[in-house]
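[step 3/7] fold_predict: job queued, chain A
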Amino acid sequence: MSGKQHIADLVRTGLCLTPSEGPLFGVVSRLVHQKGLDIVADTARDIVREGGQIAILGLGDPETEHMLSRLARSHRDNIGLLIGFNEPMARRIVAASDFCLMPSRFEPCGLTQMQAQRYGSLPIAHATGGLADTIDDGETGFLFSDLTGEGLFSACRRAFEVFGDVDVLAEMRQAAMARSFHWSGAAAEYEALYRRLLGQSPARTVPAGAKPRRPPRARTPELQAAA
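[step 4/7] structure written:
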């Protein structure tokens, strides 16, 4: 993962952040109410206080843009903001980040959390919709159910703890990068379902490399309480 540190240094330089050995939290998103950027703003000071930095890129509602601009100005050394659409920079931020913040109020699918995992950037996300479906809490990222600044920061605390344990961080990164989101796995499951409904024998199994469905895992106490 040496390349990750190099890209992180480039992102910090590009956003005028001070050099740091602490974790980098990335946000690549449309800047709209749905994406929960107000919750990021509520949590940002605590993340910086704990030694983290935040890199934000996006374009959206003027009110949200102004809110994040004020936040970045008040923490110039540790919160960087780039308003606009810049695909190369978006990919750099996702690749450079140790963690990606995704406190969406709702998310039918979502792509950034899948891209982040492929880059070994562990998503920290609200347990909703496609985010809950594609992130394994405590294995390939962190989920939280309390959609408040306190709820998000509780997940960030877990992320800080993992960042401080090199072995656990490496294990989670490897698990995240090994995730497969290829359509072949879903297609095979749909085919098997249709064949069962028609009373036919399965034609084939899930292709090699596709992640098979697993039995439900034990949830964190927070997610159990919300269930």
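[step 5/7] annotate
The longest helix spans residues 149-163.
The two ends are 36 Å apart (CA to CA).
exit 0
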